Amino acid sequence: MTPTSPEQTLLEHYVKKILAAAVYDLAVPTPLQAAAALSQALGNRILFKREDLQPTFSFKIRGAYNKLVQLTPEQRSRGVITASAGNHAQGVAMAAQALGISACIVMPRTTPQLKVLGVRSRGAEALLHGESFPFALEFALDLARQTGREFVSPFDDPQVIAGQGTVAMEILRQHPGQLDAIFVPVGGGGLIAGVAAYVKYLRPEVRIIGVESEHSACLQAALAAGERVTLASVGTFADGVAVAQIGAHGFDICRFCVDEVITVSNDQLCGAIRDIYDDTRSITEPSGALAVAGIKRYVTDSGAQGQTLVAINSGANINFDSLGHVAERAAMAAS
To answer: Is 193 in contact with 223 (CB distance < 8 Å)?
Structure first.
């Protein structure tokens, strides 16, 4: 990229939005925690960005609040509506409650009950519709047209992307030394777009590596095709990233800022959940463990040694009843 290229101009535009993002009224700066056991096992320095420690136990509160706080009084008066597999839903519900805005959230019927209760406990209306996120999204867009509520995209919105980009701002402040790669979970692309824009503008030598479930790898498919594509179906084990098409705004950034995309299996996610627990005594949801699973596959495939690798642990909203299945699959993956 030349200093005056359209790509550089786009990154500068997003960096300014990220620096101005009003996330810390509700979100908290999260620690960048060394993962001693995993670092020793992999022969690299592994750091966890602990977004599971947000008030809603997910990074999504950042983008949701940054979007809602910038709505006009007229938009606020009409209320908001969104579609979400659960984490964005809780972010919108918390942000709307703090700002006095009526919120309606459409969630797939497969959404973990913990996430549904998280929405309702924050005063928002939760409507369950469809077997996966694409169906919930279509229904929510129809309702937005019928009711006049402002639709708040979970990922395909510049203000949402800017809010998520504050994760990268914190990482670079917390770790100004050697940093080889940041591994980012990918669903609709809001998080990786915000992280990639900020990091590539300030430290272009740092690799940005997206990690997707092999059952919903919409960014990998889009990059291979050179344009956004819609997957025929998506798996819902990693429900937080069960998205069939990468967002348009995010893809504008990812197409030239993402260095690599890795896909992982459900069993690899379960193994990563166990690894995170061993190092932190915290439990992430499957989508929250994507980055760690990606690091493990990256090190195995590339033979990397002595590198500093950051994993964004993006969320911890998992039903307690699901933990037995996760433990069983993790044990099988290790055998």
So the answer is: no
Assign residue 30 the CATH number of its domain: 3.40.50.1100
Rounded distance between C-alpha atoms, residue 179 and residue 203, angstroms: 9
Q: How many angstroms from the chain centroid is the CA of residue 305?
A: 27
Q: What is the per-residue DSSP string for 131-185?
A: SSHHHHHHHHHHHHHHH-PEE--SSSSHHHHHHHHHHHHHHHHH--S---EEEEE
16 is catalytic: no
Instruction: Tell me, yes or no, whether 1 lies in a domain.
Output: no
In this structure, are 33 and 108 located in the same domain? no
CA dist 180 and 293 (Å) reads 17
Nearest to 162 by CA among 31, 287, 13: 13
- The CA distance from 216 to 201, in Å, is 28
pLDDT classification of 319: cutoffs 50, 70, 90: confident
Q: Which two tokens stand for residue 59?
A: 């990074």
- Tens digit of pLDDT for each residue in 84-115? 988 999 999 999 999 999 999 999 998 888 89
C-alpha 75/C-alpha 71 separation (Å) is: 6
- For this structure, is 314 an active site residue? yes
Among candidate residues 17, 60, 115, 200, the one labeled active-site is: 60
- Which member of 84, 153, 213, 314 is catalytic? 314
The total number of residues written for the chain in this structure: 335
Last residue of a domain, one of 151, 170, 197: 151
- Phi and psi at residue 118, in whole multiples of 5°? -65, -35
